[in-house]
Amino acid sequence: MIDHLLQVENLETQFKTPDGIVHAVNGVSFTLNEGETLGVVGESGCGKSVTMLSCLRLISSPPGKIVAGEAFFHGQDLLKMDPEELRHVRGAQISMVFQDPMTSLNPVMTIGKQLCEPLKLHLNMTDQQATNRAIELLGLVGIPRAGERLKDYPHQYSGGMRQRVMIAMSLACNPQILIADEPTTALDVTIQAQIVDLVKRLRDEMGMAIIWITHDLGVVASIAHRVAVMYGGFIIEESDVKDLYANPTHPYTLGLLGSLPHIEDKVHTRLFSIEGMPPVLYQKPVSCPFAPRCSYVTEKCWQENPKLETVSPGHRVACWVDTKSGSKR
Predict the structure, then answer these.
(1) Axis-axis angle for helices 127-140, 159-171 (nearest 10)
(2) Phi (first) and psi of residue 252, to 5 degrees
(3) DSSP string spanning 10-54?
(4) Of 47, 86, 222, 287, which is most buried with the most CB atoms under 10 A?
(5) What b-and-e string marks burial along 183-192, b requiring 16 or more CB atoms within 10 Å of the CB?
(6) Gap between the Cα atoms of 45 and 39, Å rounded
(7) Count of C-beta atoms within a 10 Å radius of residue 241
(8) CA–CA dist 284, 286 (Å, integer)
(9) How far is the C-alpha of 128 from the C-alpha of 226, rounded, in Å?
(10) 41 within 8 A of 48, measured Cβ to Cβ
């Protein structure tokens, strides 16, 4: 039996709103191994960020509530830890780079103070030790004149530099898992490429595992070992990254990959688009959540939500139809 670094089972998270209960995550299960990068992809609102925030119990309650599931890290369930135990895991053993570098840093605290705080809290460093480590971290992520820049405030950094600072903060305590929540979304293409290359280099040097949340399939292809595709609060396909791109199986994954331009195409063709809108999850889906938008839909799709089933070694999909043959499973 493989001893996974992180093992999440049947995670469910809901949000209470004036219009009703939103079923944001609906029984998500996945694993993460040491040194592995797991890409989590899907359109906005599919539950990617909420799933990972739930694992670290960073969901605001109210309105959010984790109603079921387990998240084992080194054999301990993160969802059942007391606040003091969890405080020593978050930031120290599992770190997170949040979505928007423009708003994630405290605007009234210097970069140095924000970098030194977790070092003193988790590693009991003195002020001088923390300052020296902060300079080292800024240098590690490519910030020039690191010693001088510690005294600056976030508004004195560009967007790309702020994202580098966020990565430096997340790496401060040498975490075993780094969760990166769409860390390149607000950045231009050249800076995106620099951030991806930086994270890959740091992963290889430090041996940490990464969960990379994104809607950008191009980024996933360059950084991930495995990919989990999410839709409607479910994982609907999971595979090795090469197999997913070579043999996409779920209709939604086919649609996502079909929407990408291919530079080698000799004939100009219109990009594929997925018709319809993502589901509004005021009711937990009992049928396939993708059925209203699916061109392969059958009667069974409206009656029962398929479970993830293995279709080839290391490749699982939740679909009642074999999209290659068009036959029912």
Answers:
(1) 130
(2) -70, -45
(3) EEEEEEEETTEEEEEEEEEEEEE-TT-EEEEE--TTSSHHHHHHH
(4) 47
(5) bbbbbeeebb
(6) 16
(7) 19
(8) 6
(9) 41
(10) yes
Q: Is 2 exposed, middle or buried (0-12, 13-18, 19+ CB in 10 A)?
A: exposed
What are 163's two structure tokens?
């994202």
Tokens of 171: 């790496």
Interstrand relation of 234-240 and 226-231 (parallel, antiparallel or unpaired): antiparallel
Q: What is the DSSP letter of 46?
A: S
Tokens coding 323: 């999209």
C-alpha span between 63 and 324 (Å, rounded)? 42
The mean pLDDT values, 10 residues at a time, for the chain of 329 residues are 82 92 92 92 88 91 90 91 87 83 82 89 88 88 86 88 85 87 76 80 86 86 91 93 91 85 67 80 88 89 91 91 73
Question: How many residues does this entry show for the chain?
Answer: 329
Token pair 């139809």: residue: 321
For every residue of 123-177, DSSP letters joined together read H---HHHHHHHHHHHHHHTT-SSHHHHTTS-GGGS-HHHHHHHHHHHHHTT--SE
Q: Which residue(s) pair with 39 in the sheet?
A: 212, 227
pTM summary value: 0.88
Instruction: Give the C-alpha distances (Å, rounded to integers) separating 128 from 125, 168, 269.
Output: 8, 18, 60
Which residue do the tokens 């799709």 mark? 301
Q: Which of 152, 206, 197 is nearest to 177 (CA)?
A: 206
Using only the alpha carbons of the chain, give its radius of gyration. Answer: 21
Stretch (H or E) spanning 67: strand 64-73
- What does the alpha-carbon distance between residue 51 and residue 200 come to, in Å, rounded to a whole number? 23
